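USER: For my understanding, would you kindly supply a protein sequence with its structure tokens?

ASSISTANT:
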Amino acid sequence: MLVLTRKRSEMIQIGENVVIKVLQTGRGTVKIGIEAPDDVRVIRAELAGAPAPGHPLAAFLQERRDIKRGNEHRRFDPQPEGIVAE
């Protein structure tokens, strides 16, 4: 997983046709804008349905649920093992 730090108004380009722009930042939130061709489906992950257990997004979403519930701090590991306790 590539992790980038961006400030307001800075952009990230994916391939030739997708641009992500940081529109606003706040306490614990980031508002982004996504420019993509009409044939590229852009949807919030939680609306796409539950990913299969081996999918990296499944581990990431479980990590978010654990953090919100106050469980031990965990770090996302994109390998098939998923989440690694620290």
Summary: The beta strands are 11-14, 18-26, 29-35, 74-76, 83-85. Helices lie at 56-68.
